[in-house]
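Batch manifest line 427
LIGAND: 2-acetamido-2-deoxy-beta-D-glucopyranose
JOB: complex structure
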Amino acid sequence: MTLKAIAAAVSLLLCASGVASAQKAVYAHFMVGIVENYTVDDWKADMVDAKSIGIDGFALNCAPPRVDSYTPKQLSNAYQAAGESDFKVFISFDFAYWQNGTYGFCSRFAYDTALIISTLQNYSSLPGQAKYDGGAIASTFVGEFFDWAPVKAVLNVTALPNMEDPIQVTELKTSFDGAFSWYAWPTDGGNSIIPGSMTTIWDDKFVLWLTSRPYMMPVSPWFSTHFNSKNWVFICEQLITDRWEQVLAIQPQLVEIISWNDFGESHYISGPQPHHSDDGSSQWAAGMPHDAWRHIMKPYIAAYKAGASAPTVDADGLVYWYRPTPKDIRCTNDTLPAPNGISLLADVVFVTTMLTAPATLTVTSGSLPPISVNISAGIVTSNFTIGVGTQTFAVNRNGTKILGGDGGLKIASTCTTYNFNAYVGGF
Ligand SMILES: *[C@@H]1O[C@H](CO)[C@@H](O)[C@H](O)[C@H]1NC(C)=O
Ligand SMILES: *[C@@H]1O[C@H](CO)[C@@H](O)[C@H](O)[C@H]1NC(C)=O
Ligand SMILES: *[C@@H]1O[C@H](CO)[C@@H](O)[C@H](O)[C@H]1NC(C)=O
Ligand SMILES: *[C@@H]1O[C@H](CO)[C@@H](O)[C@H](O)[C@H]1NC(C)=O
Ligand SMILES: *[C@@H]1O[C@H](CO)[C@@H](O)[C@H](O)[C@H]1NC(C)=O
Ligand SMILES: *[C@@H]1O[C@H](CO)[C@@H](O)[C@H](O)[C@H]1NC(C)=O
Ligand SMILES: *[C@@H]1O[C@H](CO)[C@@H](O)[C@H](O)[C@H]1NC(C)=O
Ligand SMILES: *[C@@H]1O[C@H](CO)[C@@H](O)[C@H](O)[C@H]1NC(C)=O
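JOB STATUS: finished
ARTIFACT:
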C-alpha cells in the first residue's frame, strides 16, 4: 500500500466510526451520600470493578456540604482516585438538596448557583473529569430548572441535567446541552407503577426533541424499596436484558446505569462496599449480591460502544436472580405494609444464558419438577415458575453438563420483614 492509500484507509475508518460514537461512554450513578468515610483506595476498588466491565466513569450524586459535610472530601477523593485509575467522574447535583431558589439575598446569583460554580471550578480541570464535546460534564437528579448560563459564562461545561419530562427539552431556557432521563423503569410518569414490560416511550421523546444533542439514557436492573417514606416496587423483573437491547436499538450518545451503589432502591450492581454507611437498607440489601448482573452488562456495554445491534458472547455463562419469597407470603414482624405494586409481580425465577452455541437449560425450582428448554446462542433471558426451596440450574450441550449448580439462597415460604430485592448469582 502507498502512503496515500494508507491515509485514505485511515480517514475512511475515522469517518465510518463517526464523531459521536467516538464520545460514547457508559457512566454509573454513585451515591456519595453513603460513603462518608471512604478512602481513596475504597474508591479505587469500585473503579477497578466498574472498569472491568467497560464502565467509563461514575456520576457522583451528592448533596451540598450544608447537608453532608463530607461532600467536598469525598468529591476530592473520587477525583483523585479517578485520576490515578484512568477512570472518569462528573458531579450529579442532587436537587432533592441543592436549590435554584433566590433566597441568598447578598448574592448576585441564586444561592446555589455560586456554590455550584465554585464546586465545579474546584474539580473540573482535574484529570479525572469526564468530558463531552470538550466540556466538563455536569448533571443533576431532578433540578431541571437550574439555569446553566451563569455557570457557562465562567466554565466550559456540558450540562446534562435530569429532566422529569421530555417535553421540558422543548420548553426550558436554561442553557442545557443535553438531557438525562430517570425513567429507567416502566411508568406513566413520576413514580406511577404500571405493569411491565419496559418500553422506550420516554426515550423516544427525548431523542426526538433533543435532535442531535446528547441523550444520556438510563439503564437499571431492578427497583424495590421499603422505607416508611417510600415503599414500592417497579415491575421490571426482566429489565436488565430488555433495557440493554433497547440501548443497542437506540444507540444514544451516552448511557447512565442506575445505579452503582444505591442499596436503598435495590438497583446496585457494585459489590457489597464494606465501608459504606447504612441508611436502613441493609434490611433488604445485606447478603443479597448483585455482582453477577455485571457479567450480563459487560458484553452489552461492548456492543453499545461498537455500535453493534447484538452482543457478542465469547464464553458460556449463566446468571440467575429471584426474590427470597413468593409475593403473597405475609411477613410476620414488619412495621411497614408490603410494598405497593407487588400484586403486579410474577412469581418466577429468571435465568440469563450467555451461550457460544445452542444448549439445553434445566431449572429445578424447589419441589417443582425440573423444566428443560433449548436455548439458542447469544444472550437469552428465560423464566420459570417459583417453587419454595433450593433452586438448581444446569446447562447441557450435546448431553454433557457444561455449567450449573445450586442458587445461593433458598426460596422461603415464611419471612419476618418484606424483601422484594433480588438475589443474583451466576456460573
Ligand atoms: C427554579 O427555577 C424555576 C424557573 O427558572 C422556577 O420555576 C422554580 O420555582 C425555581 N425553584 C426554586 C426552588 O426556586
Ligand atoms: C475544594 O476541594 C477541597 C478539597 O480538595 C475542599 O476542601 C474544598 O472544600 C472544596 N471547595 C469547594 C467549594 O467545593
Ligand atoms: C470547550 O472546550 C473545547 C475543547 O477545548 C472547545 O472545543 C470548546 O470550544 C470549548 N467551549 C467553550 C464554550 O469554551
Ligand atoms: C465516619 O467516621 C466518623 C469518625 O470516625 C464516625 O464518627 C462516623 O460515625 C463514621 N460514619 C459512618 C457512616 O460510619
Ligand atoms: C420484631 O422486630 C423487632 C425489631 O423491629 C424485634 O425487636 C423483635 O424482637 C421482633 N420480634 C420477633 C417475634 O421476632
Ligand atoms: C431440545 O432439542 C433436542 C434436539 O433437537 C430435542 O431432542 C429435545 O426434545 C429438545 N428439548 C426440549 C426441551 O425442547
Ligand atoms: C417469562 O417469559 C415469557 C416467555 O418469554 C414472557 O412472555 C414473559 O413476559 C416472561 N415473564 C416475565 C415476568 O418477564
Ligand atoms: C453436538 O455433537 C454433534 C456430533 O458430535 C456435533 O456435530 C455438533 O456440532 C455438536 N453440537 C454442539 C452444539 O456442540
